[in-house]
Design a protein that fits this description.
Blueprint: E1 6-10, H1 14-28, E2 33-36, H2 43-47, E3 54-59, E4 69-71, H3 74-80, E5 88-91, H4 98-107, E6 115-122, H5 125-129, H6 135-141, H7 154-168, E7 171-180, E8 188-196
Parallel strand pairs: 1-7, 2-3, 2-5, 3-4, 5-6
Antiparallel strand pairs: 6-8, 7-8
Helix pairs in contact: 3-4, 4-7, 6-7
The structure holds S-adenosylmethionine.
S-adenosylmethionine binds near residues 39, 41, 42, 74 and 94.
Amino acid sequence: MFQSGVKTDNNPQAFKAKVAIRRNVMAAIGQPAVFDAFAGSGKMYSEVWREAGSYTGCDLKPQNDGRLMFCADNRRVMRAIDLTQFNIIDLDSYGSPWEQAIIIADRRRVAPGELFGLILTEGAGFAYKSNVVPTAIAHLTGLRAGIVGLGKKQDAVIDRAIAGLVRRMSCSIEKRWQAEGKSGAAMRYIGLVLKGKG
Ligand SMILES: C[S@@+](CC[C@H](N)C(=O)[O-])C[C@H]1O[C@@H](n2cnc3c(N)ncnc32)[C@H](O)[C@@H]1O
């Protein structure tokens, strides 16, 4: 179903795809220690992350289900805590995960040879259709505001953002899995295994 570096076509079972991508990333990382930045009600925790070696969640909304959680804006938390405690970070946002991804790039050094899992849910398709370039995307891609035709280039924008991100992290991409949500929502589910270059 998923192969390294290969995109799947429209996947009607987004939930299953999200679970499979997380399982793949977890299998690739030894002793997974997960930071689940958009932890929500814990669907991904119940399906996958509860099997990780350690788990810390974060959400704006309080969750009272016994998980170890920060109840706060994940950007504030990720700017404050030691991110080297985690070797998988899950950015399962509703919209754009890129601002949080930049915080990780700038604060989570990946040692030479170290593997690091990064999971992205990208749903900024509506912004691209309106030819809006979110600030974090502009930083990572070099795209300027006012550019037209972005709506048809979502995947190219994402590829360019990932390239900018891994360059910033001084990493290479060891593995990548990707699936698409329902076409109208233009969601992309991406799992990356990065390797530190030093
Ligand atoms: C798509 S849901 C996450 C679903 C979750 N991963 C799961 O498995 O159930 C997005 C969640 O992100 C939270 N959220 C949105 N912006 C946030 C932020 N800046 N910091 C922390 N949580 C945020 C929302 O409250 C919502 O629960």
